[in-house]
Amino acid sequence: MALRIYNTLTQRKEPFTPQREGKVGMYVCGITVYDLCHVGHARAFVVFDVIYRYLKYRGYEVTYVRNFTDIDDKIIARAQREETPWEEIVERYIQRFHEDMTALGVERPQVEPRVTDHIPEIIELVQGLIAQGYAYPVGGDIYYAVERFPSYGRLSGRNLQELQAGARIEVDERKVNPLDFALWKASKPGEPAWDSPWGKGRPGWHIECSAMSMKYLGESFDIHGGGQDLIFPHHENEIAQSEAYTGRPFARYWIHNGFINVNQEKMSKSLGNFFTIAEILKRYHPEVIRFFLLSKHYRSPIDFAPQHVEQSRRGLNELYRLRRRIEELFKEGGTAVPGGMVAEGLSEEEQGLREELPLWRGRFEEAMDNDFNTAQVLGYLFQWGKRLGQLLEGGKANGRPAALSLLREAWEEILGMGHVLGLFSIATAAYPLEEGQGAGFAWADLVAAVEHGEGEICQWRTPEALGRLKERIEQRGDARRRKDWAEADRIREELAREGIALEDTPAGTAIRFRE
């Protein structure tokens, strides 16, 4: 099966045919570096990391470009608020971004261009649009004239008349059309600025991505990606200015990942359900987050709720436990048949697996070729892992080289497919198979109690609140191990006032919520 990609531009799945055989150019919109990244960013960059990995797995030579917007109103505002040079704000949050991405196992693109390093290219592009009649100056500002581009709205599926009728754009009487957007902004006192033919200023948001993508990938390239929130106006405007400038199609395949909701509500700072990557990594192992983000098809919305992340944790734990059992089996002296699998000495059940194993890779590729269906792949990994677990029951494979060889080759297949998704990247011993061991309680049980509880329990039904609760219970467990009974009692009494009862038992700490 050939790789098929859902193209936002055509609203259908299409066979993937790169412009140059064996080579792929991919541009993904990066972040504006004025704050910490949130879980929505995590989804976008994990999704495109998997796409990047799979294209390489398929044998393509991929040039992957992901930019940094390092000059913007929000960066300037933060610098002024903190009384800090804007350059320091930029460096701080680029560093934090790289730390987050490294933790999540996201591979770095070959090119990470910054806007401020590409001012000459941006100015040249703006000059070309003015010369061709697609842009016009107003004082020191330059605007793109959307009415000059007949197919404006094609990506987002809207026509210009509908957009004008529903425009919620601040009225600027200087613009010919309310939808006209800034290519270049005249500088204001005290703001960073660069010399241009129109006076000192800085680029608009949309023009920077056109300039950087075309510099590194050419005037027409294969894949342009980002979140669904970028379809309009950002990507729509990129197409308009790029194709007007070159007279050629800009990007052939447009890929957009879906939104993240928190407990079935849109994630936003105003709703108080906004979580940074750093915050969620304090509560969950990075591979758990990655597993969770890939558990739904990338175009579908995904609900970031404790019970869903916990489900992913349990699922990933099952696979790591299987890995540990197989590794321990070989450490204990298990010897496989040299040269791979043989049928001799296999049980009927094992023989069935041996015959099925060559089909696994094909099913994996079929799922990934179907618009990168990672959710289906994870389902396969569970299914196949369960098969291997059954073969390990009761020491069935012990002392049987043919069975051990089968187990090893089957697990290596699972491991290889997992690596394409960025999973199983750490040693088994380094992966925390148990949550909350020090506190003596089951995190899964706590999540379940919150999920199904009523009344005041609902106050704990967010990842942030559950994280705080978990931290306090673990602090009490640490106090008990230190025999600091006064501190342990203080935390228990504090939680009791909040409706949580802790009872110490020989099996650990039992938790219940007072109704």
Automatic annotation (TrEMBL):
It comes from Tectimicrobiota bacterium. The keyword Signal does not apply. Residues 363-432 form the Cysteinyl-tRNA synthetase class Ia DALR domain. Its EC number is 6.1.1.16. Binds 1 zinc ion per subunit. GO terms for cellular component: cytosol. Belongs to the class-I aminoacyl-tRNA synthetase family. ATP binds at K269. It catalyses: tRNA(Cys) + L-cysteine + ATP = L-cysteinyl-tRNA(Cys) + AMP + diphosphate. A motif ('HIGH' region) lies at residues 31-41. One of its GO terms (molecular function) is cysteine-tRNA ligase activity. Its main location: cytoplasm. Keywords: Aminoacyl-tRNA synthetase, ATP-binding, Cytoplasm, Ligase, Metal-binding, Nucleotide-binding, Protein biosynthesis, Zinc. Zn(2+) binds at C29, C209, H234, E238. This is Cysteine--tRNA ligase. Pfam families: DALR_2 (PF09190), tRNA-synt_1e (PF01406). GO terms for biological process: cysteinyl-tRNA aminoacylation. Its cofactor is Zn(2+). It is an enzyme of class 6 (ligase). Coiled coil: none annotated. It is found in: Cytoplasm.
